[in-house]
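Design request, tokens follow.
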């Protein structure tokens, strides 16, 4: 038998194809269970299944389609959402095969589903347009705040003027402007 460059080929291509078909066909079996049945290690079976799914990604023109990241958590959010939506439409029996085919765990899928739902619940700051009434209220509030500050300054100045008059003039009314004798 021929082999790859780094390791000799232990199993025939026909056997590999039949085992891959059993793991990905109409009634798929897990790599772990199949390993127990046929005596091929689970890691080897999983690798064959992964390689077979990557070969399916080869386009007709010979170019390789962009491969998925090594870890499911590294998938882009849109792909995670697509997987969540696709899984939601599956029956319990189909879900296991779907998870194996995509290299996912049910817990990851549930985590992504919860993240998608919570993202829908969070309002985006600065994304909503304010109504004309809300803009007017905000403008009036700013004007009121500005006038409150000015009034506080004037009040502070009047208090300081009274204290200065009391110190300099002893409280004499003739020193205040507008008073005539």
């Amino acid at each position: 038998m021929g082999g790859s460059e780094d390791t000799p080929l232990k199993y025939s291509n026909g056997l590999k194809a039949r085992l891959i078909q059993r793991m990905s066909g109409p009634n798929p079996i897990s790599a772990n269970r199949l390993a127990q049945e046929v005596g091929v290690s689970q890691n080897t079976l999983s690798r064959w299944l992964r390689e077979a799914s990557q070969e399916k990604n080869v386009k007709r023109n010979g170019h390789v389609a962009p491969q998925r990241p090594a870890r499911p958590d590294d998938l882009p959010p849109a792909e995670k959402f697509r997987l969540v939506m696709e899984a939601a439409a599956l029956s319990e029996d189909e879900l296991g095969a779907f998870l194996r085919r995509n290299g996912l765990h049910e817990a990851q899928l549930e985590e992504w589903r919860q993240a998608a739902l919570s993202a829908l619940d969070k309002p985006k700051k600065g994304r909503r347009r304010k109504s004309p009434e809300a803009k007017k209220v905000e403008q009036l509030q700013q004007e009121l705040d500005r006038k409150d500050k000015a009034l506080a300054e004037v009040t502070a100045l009047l208090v300081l003027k009274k204290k200065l008059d009391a110190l300099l003039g002893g409280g004499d009314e003739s020193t205040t402007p507008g008073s005539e004798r």
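Comment from the thread starter after seeing the answer: thanks! The chain is about 60% helix and 0% strand.
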